[in-house]
Amino acid sequence: MSKIAVIYYSSTGHVHQLAGALANGAADAGAKVRLRRVAELAPEEVIRRQDAWHEHYAATVDVVREAQLEDLEWADGFALGTPTRYGLPAAQLKEFIDQTGPLWLDGHLANKVATSFTSAANRHGGQESTLLALNNIFYHWGSLIVPPGYTHQVQYEAGGNPYGTSYESGLEGDLSVSVEALTAAHYQGFRLADYARRLVSGAYSLAGHPDGAEAEAAAIAAYNPPQASALG
After folding, report:
1. Most CB atoms within 10 A, among 63, 130, 185, 229?
2. Is 149 left (phi over 0), alpha (psi -120 to 50) or beta?
3. What is the pTM of this model?
4. Could you read off the pLDDT of 127-145 as tens digits, one per residue?
């Protein structure tokens, strides 16, 4: 069984919903999953001035556990999610990432699978550049990037971003996320956990356990999209 950490920042809830769907996908692939939010950095008076931001913060601050560096050390793979901020990850997630130096130095982030996801108001609001910026971090960590690519039909139905799930939230204040995007996130989590399982099984086999682990490690699990009601 692999272990997956889904760590994200969300201001109004779109990335939070994607993170939940991705975590469910990893769990459906048989992984143990930790869903974690990074700490909010914005002053409370700023958050209170924006209803959607304040409502999401109040609804999740005591429900979703705050991410710790130990979550990354524990995991065999991780997914990082963030809204775009001028084509880059949000400062809240970046602040968490900037604390990972000791883990990186000790090799606790290397040889683990990783993937990224995002959301922006506009179709060309920097979604791909945000995902690529997160992937740059994975290069430095020595992680093995597992993008969704064009490996399943659900990717096309969600807009066809091969770098990672991305959702165009719009400018009308709609706080929901489409079923297509949630399904793509679910698939991304499933795929991440499946490759983490293969990596862990391969290491088990290489450690000298001749019990068929080689075949298990090589097998790619079939993905069947869940019903929309199971994506939350």
Report:
1. 185
2. left
3. 0.89
4. 999 999 999 999 999 999 9
